[in-house]
Design a protein that fits this description.
By secondary structure, the protein is an alpha/beta fold. 42% of the residues lie in helices and 20% in strands. It is built from eight helices and seven strands. The protein has a seven-stranded mixed sheet, with helices on both faces. Strand 4, helix 7 and strand 5 form a beta-alpha-beta unit.
């Protein structure tokens, strides 16, 4: 079965963004900034409408595209209710761009951008838990992010991890992957095994976009 044809078929049914989101998306693509794929965007929007989380933690802001996708969805579902998004980013240029994008939106006061290495930033968060956690940052650090995500969760918190198929490399054996990509390949294989077998989680692996791990904290 040709999965690339299936993906192209699915994408043909996705819609373009409008307004600020389209502006951010188009610029990110032009600048080669990694952001969530269109089918991943659609999945997140549907998932958030089902869960209706009031608190979201995002690990990996980039230029704020996915942050604002989630913010728009929460605003539509919850209105002016007490929802909030904390999002983590290390790269200074992307922090600057995300800050500008948040300021252009109507959600600036609903979003807190936590600057610095997420592996350290997450450890400094105490006394709060999140209803929904989206992990989309340095792939080699996913195990660290997951442990902190679970610590910051409560029963039934939903954790979504993006890019778990690593452009298909994770399907290949270690020695068939480009040498420079083998560390990520091995760590992602380890992550998938861990997240599927962790007794604290119920996890489904989905082939949406570049692959998602959808976990619920027991």
């Amino acid at each position: 079965m040709d999965y690339s044809r299936i993906r192209d078929f699915i994408i043909s049914y996705t819609h373009d963004d409008e307004g600020l989101l389209k502006e951010i998306y188009d610029k990110a693509i032009a600048d080669d900034v990694p952001i969530i794929r269109r089918e991943t965007r659609d999945f997140l929007q549907v998932l958030l409408r089902i869960i209706k989380p009031e608190t979201i933690l995002e690990v990996g802001t980039a230029v704020g595209y996915s942050t604002l996708v989630m913010a728009e969805t929460l605003s539509d579902v919850l209105g002016d209710a007490h929802w909030h998004i904390d999002t983590c980013e290390l790269d200074e240029s992307r922090i600057e761009e995300a800050t500008k994008n948040f300021a252009k939106s109507s959600f600036d006061e609903k979003i807190s951008l936590l600057k610095g290495d997420a592996a350290e930033t997450l450890k400094r968060i105490n006394g709060k838990t999140y209803d929904f956690i989206f992990i989309d940052a340095a792939k080699a650090q996913y195990m660290t992010y997951l442990e902190e995500a679970i610590r910051l969760s409560h029963k039934d918190t939903v954790i979504v991890t993006d890019n778990i198929l690593a452009e298909g490399d994770v399907l290949e054996s270690h020695f068939l992957v480009e040498k420079r990509d083998r560390t990520i390949h091995d760590r992602m294989r380890e992550y998938l095994s861990y997240v599927k077998n962790d007794s604290r989680l119920e996890t489904s692996i989905l082939s949406v976009g570049d692959g998602l791990a959808l976990s619920v904290v027991k």
